[in-house]
Structures are given as structure tokens and as C-alpha cells.
Amino acid sequence: MVSLLLNASLAKSSTIPSTNSTSGRDRKNFISAVSCRRAAETGKESSSTLLRNMIRTSLVPVAISLSVAFWSIPAHAGFFSGFSGIESIPGPQLPQINFIERFNEENQKKYAENDAKFKESPILKKLLEQSRLNKEKNEKAILDKYCIRGAEWGVGDCSAEGMTPEEREKFIAMLKQKAGVD
After folding, report:
1. Would you tell me which of 22, 71, 121, 142 could form a disulfide with 17, CB atoms 3.0–4.6 Å apart?
2. Mean pLDDT over each residue of the chain, to the nearest integer
3. Read out DSSP for 122-166?
4. Termini Cα distance of the chain
5. Are the beta carbons of 28 and 20 closer than 8 angstroms?
6. Which long-range contacts link 33-41 to residues 24+ away (Cβ below 8 Å)?
7. Residue 20 vs residues 15, 26, 56: alpha-carbon distances, Å
8. 138: region left, alpha or beta (phi > 0 left; psi from -120 to 50 alpha)
9. Rounded-to-integer distance, Cα 29 and Cα 12, Å
């Protein structure tokens, strides 16, 4: 339809489609392209027109919103860009109250003493040792599991690639026995 309009506008006046020289289909397309009426008003809206309208009404807003969302030009703050802000300016010196300063010092000493006692407690040392041993044990179990899986799949450091099927089965069984997996 657009090409028909383009051709008609570029052609000489003698070649513009008229009622005498064109088929009914070309005349309908030309008139509907030139006409201000919608196809829906005539009651003969085709499926391609519906599809075109649906794409136009759904994709255009999405494309516009995506282009706005991914706009890469940074916002400029104008006069305040580069200004470090009021937080960088030290505030006025507040009056010091001796009672509050002594109270804070005493609390800090108590907290430091309690922290030292807690760090030296046998319960904490026992729990930290258990955590370290569990971490080592769990890490070894995970590595063994991955080694067995790699041998079965034929990938990684424990790959059984190049072994005969019998050697491969023996190797995987030995890995499972070593790891304690049934």
C-alpha cells in the first residue's frame, strides 16, 4: 500500500491509478490509503491490518519505555555537581559533660574486660576448634563427592578417561570406598 502511494506520487499524472485503468483490488487499496476513513468503519478490516495495529500498539510503547530506561547519558547536577556537601563541613564543638565522659570510659573498660574474658573462655575455644574441624571434614567430603562425580562422568582431575570399563568401575568403587559412600 505504501509502495502504491509512493509510486503514484512519483509517477506522471497519466499513470496514477484511476477507475478505468486499475483492477478493483488496486483501486480499493489506493482509495483506502488515500482516504481518511479507517478500514474498521467500512467493516472490511483484514487480519493483516489487525496484526499491524496490534504490533503498533504493543511494541511501540515497549520500545519507547526501554529506550528511556536504558538511556546512557548521566544526569547533571548543575551547580551542585562536585560539591562535597554539608556533611564534609565539621559541625560546631558541643559542650563536654564530665559525668557522661566518665560513664562512657567506665563502660568501655567493662566491655573490653568482658570481651577478653569471653575470648579466653574454654567454651569458646572448644566451639571454635569444632567449627574448624567440621569445616575441614565437610570440605573433604565435598571434594570427594566431586571427585567421584568427575570419575563417573569422565571429566576433571579424577576422570577415568582412557581406562577400560572394568578398570573404570574398580577405580570408582575405590573412590567411593575411600570417601565412605555406599
Report:
1. 22
2. 75
3. HHHHHHHHHHHHHHHHHHHHHHHHHHHHHHHHT-STT--TTS-HH
4. 74
5. no
6. 33/1, 33/2, 33/4, 33/5, 34/5
7. 11, 11, 35
8. alpha
9. 19
Q: Is 82 left (phi over 0), alpha (psi -120 to 50) or beta?
A: left
Residue ranges of the chain whose pLDDT lies below 70: 1-45, 69, 71-87, 182
Model pTM above 0.85 = no
Q: Write out the three cell numbers for 84.
A: 562535597
Task: Give the three-state DSSP class for 17.
Answer: coil
C-alpha grid cell for residue 98?
564530665
Give how far Cα 28 sits from Cα of 15, 62, 173, 182, Å. 17, 33, 80, 80
Q: Do 19 and 10 form a contact (C-beta atoms < 8 A)?
A: no
Q: Is residue 3 within 8 Å of residue 10, measured between CB atoms?
A: no
Spatial contact of 17 and 30, defined as CB atoms under 8 Å apart:
yes
Q: What is the C-alpha to C-alpha distance for residues 182 and 178, in angstroms, rounded to an integer?
A: 10
